[in-house]
């Protein structure tokens, strides 16, 4: 199962990211993972949150433009070499990665991937024995 | 479909209108000569007296008036009646300099209200309609003008004034408002808000809108018509001449009929002042034929448009003006090229985006910089940086094709551009020339 990532448009200037975190904080939304893509003028904040529905609602109410993007999340061992093991399977399945980011949990590490055809990639990787995490699993990490 | 408020004059044969103008103009010129020393001095300096003005063919002999005259004569210098005869003032928004104050007698108010009533009836309004006036009330002529017209027609008038958009929507829904009067940018905003609240066009009781007081494009009209499920009519006017209703659109939506029983229109070359033949684009000039308190003769509007006397299938005979390309006050000259904000709006709407933009002009090393800020919308946003850049590039190419010069498009946060609910702040010119 793919996971819904919240992508938000931000202007690239001081204070805009803080305005976003302020809205999320006020509404008690917990960010589980976050990455930022930037150009000289604007950026896209990509994040996994504990409550996707609530997050998109409060962002809209506060005049942010946000969209949901399906991403694939995989848990690996938090030790040297395991990302390499995971990516070998991507290579073998010929899955191209648009972007990725990662975070380490208490026991395991979590890798988040954006690919161009999520469903197809997920099926291919499954055939290599890789099970992607569900929204609930990510929220429970 | 007889949508006329005063059919006898609105559909009068052109000869009858000309005869009326030939009677009113010489009398009006004599009236200002006798009552306004400022005019007398100006006419004397120009070597012309009321005796030289026998018909509208002599109009070109008179000197022009401009906003500078109104400022020079501020506040009472152009008043043609004692103050005790005046019942009201209105004032310009002051966006292009010092405010200008205009005075009205009761008869001036009456003729102004007739003009806006004609516009409301042309848009299908009757005494059975509920007319919500969401133009600003107060010094701005929008609220007072449409309010008065709505009373004349006998509509139930809902004077919401501008602002507090959720309350606007509440009144539209609860009172089943059928006609909405406001600026086009505010109409678009109300439409957007309806959409955000989950209303579909068929849920909205409005059937017509009368929108004016700022430049807007055909694309914006179609967009508003679609979102609100209405037919949108343009209305034209300027405070100096009385306010909205100097001209208005009929069911044909093909140019605005000028109320030429009250306002005599000319098109001139803005550089030479020469009167141009019908159908030629130029600056619109008005002479008020029967106003009492503040009659202006040959007032230069700075609006660029064309006039046509081609027969209109609505049955009205009054001359039609095209939608002004923009006030020549609004027109920017950037790197030597004329740029009207409405052209930028057209490019945005053509690409399916809302017209929420702001032009920022500056000057670096003697070269103009030209930036267009565009608010990001859900339609334009994706998670992919490259895709957003590509969409931005499409807008830049579109602007270049439309204007002939390069503009830098910057995408900014939603609702970050100052949205005045009276008039939109579309241009920031930082050039110090």
How many domains, in number, for the residues of chain B?
A: 2
- Beta-strand content estimate of chain B: 15-25%
The CATH superfamily of the largest domain in chain A is known as VC0802-like
3D shape of chain A: globular
Low-pLDDT stretches of chain B are none
Q: What CATH first level of the largest domain in chain B would be assigned?
A: Alpha Beta
C-alpha termini separation of chain B: 54 Å
Total beta strands of chain B:
20
Strand percentage of chain A: 35-45%
Rg on CA atoms of chain A, Å? 16 Å
The CATH topology of the largest domain in chain B comes to: Rossmann fold
- CATH structural architecture of the largest domain in chain B: 3-Layer(aba) Sandwich
> Which percent range fits the helix content of chain A?
25-40%
- Strands across the major sheet of chain B, in which order? 4-3-5-6-7-8-9-14-13
Query: Which secondary-structure class do the elements of chain A indicate?
Result: alpha+beta
Poorly predicted segments of chain A:
none
Radius of gyration of chain B: 22 Å
């Amino acid at each position: 199962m793919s996971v819904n990532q919240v992508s938000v448009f931000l202007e690239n200037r001081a204070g805009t990211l803080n305005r976003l975190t302020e809205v999320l904080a006020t509404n008690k939304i917990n960010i589980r993972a976050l990455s930022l893509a930037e150009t000289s003028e604007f950026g896209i904040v990509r994040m996994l949150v504990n409550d996707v529905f609530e997050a998109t609602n409060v962002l809209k109410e506060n005049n942010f433009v946000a969209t949901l993007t399906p991403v694939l999340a995989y848990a690996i061992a938090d030790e040297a070499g395991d990302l390499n093991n995971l990516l070998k399977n991507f290579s073998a399945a010929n899955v191209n990665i648009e972007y990725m980011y990662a975070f380490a949990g208490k026991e395991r590490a979590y890798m988040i991937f954006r690919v161009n055809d999520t469903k197809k990639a997920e099926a291919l990787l499954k055939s290599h024995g890789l099970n992607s995490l569900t929204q609930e699993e990510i929220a429970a990490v | 479909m007889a949508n006329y408020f005063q059919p006898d004059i609105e559909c009068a044969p052109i000869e009858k209108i000309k005869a009326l103008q030939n009677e009113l103009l010489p009398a009006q010129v004599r009236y200002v000569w006798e009552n306004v020393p400022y005019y007398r001095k100006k006419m004397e300096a120009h070597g012309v007296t009321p005796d030289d003005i026998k018909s509208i063919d002599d109009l070109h002999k008179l000197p022009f008036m401009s906003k500078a005259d109104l400022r020079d004569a501020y506040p009472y210098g152009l008043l043609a009646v004692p103050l005790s005869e005046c019942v009201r003032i209105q004032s310009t928004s002051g966006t292009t300099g010092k405010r200008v104050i205009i005075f009205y007698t009761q008869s001036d108010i009456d003729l102004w209200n007739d003009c806006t009533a004609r516009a409301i009836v042309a848009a299908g309004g009757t005494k059975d309609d509920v007319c919500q006036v969401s133009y600003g009330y107060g010094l701005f002529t929008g609220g007072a003008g449409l309010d008065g017209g709505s009373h004349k027609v006998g509509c139930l008038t809902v004077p919401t004034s501008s602002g507090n958009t959720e309350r606007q929507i509440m009144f539209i829904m609860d009172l089943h408002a059928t006609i909405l009067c406001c600026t086009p940018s505010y109409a678009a905003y109300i439409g957007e808000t309806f959409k955000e609240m989950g209303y579909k066009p068929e849920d909205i009781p409005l059937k017509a809108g009368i929108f004016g007081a700022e430049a807007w494009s055909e694309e914006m009209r179609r967009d508003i018509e679609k979102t609100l499920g209405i037919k949108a009519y343009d209305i034209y006017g300027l405070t100096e001449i009385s306010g909205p209703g100097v001209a208005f659109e009929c069911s044909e939506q093909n140019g605005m009929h000028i109320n030429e029983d009250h306002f005599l229109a000319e098109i001139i070359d803005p550089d030479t002042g020469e009167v141009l033949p019908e159908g030629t684009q130029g600056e619109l000039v008005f002479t008020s034929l029967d106003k009492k308190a503040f009659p202006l003769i040959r007032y230069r509007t700075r609006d660029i448009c064309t006039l046509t006397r081609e027969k209109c299938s609505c049955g009205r005979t009054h001359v039609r003006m095209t939608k002004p390309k923009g006030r020549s006050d609004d027109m920017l000259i950037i790197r030597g090229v004329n740029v009207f904000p409405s052209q930028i709006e057209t490019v945005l709407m053509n690409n399916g985006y809302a017209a929420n933009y702001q032009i920022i002009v500056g000057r670096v090393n003697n070269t103009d910089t030209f930036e267009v800020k565009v608010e990001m919308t859900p339609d334009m946003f994706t998670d992919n940086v490259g895709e957003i850049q590509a969409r931005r590039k499409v807008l830049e190419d579109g602007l270049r094709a439309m204007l002939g010069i390069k503009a830098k498009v910057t995408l900014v946060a939603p609702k970050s551009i100052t949205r005045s609910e009276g008039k939109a702040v579309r241009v920031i010119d930082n050039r110090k020339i």
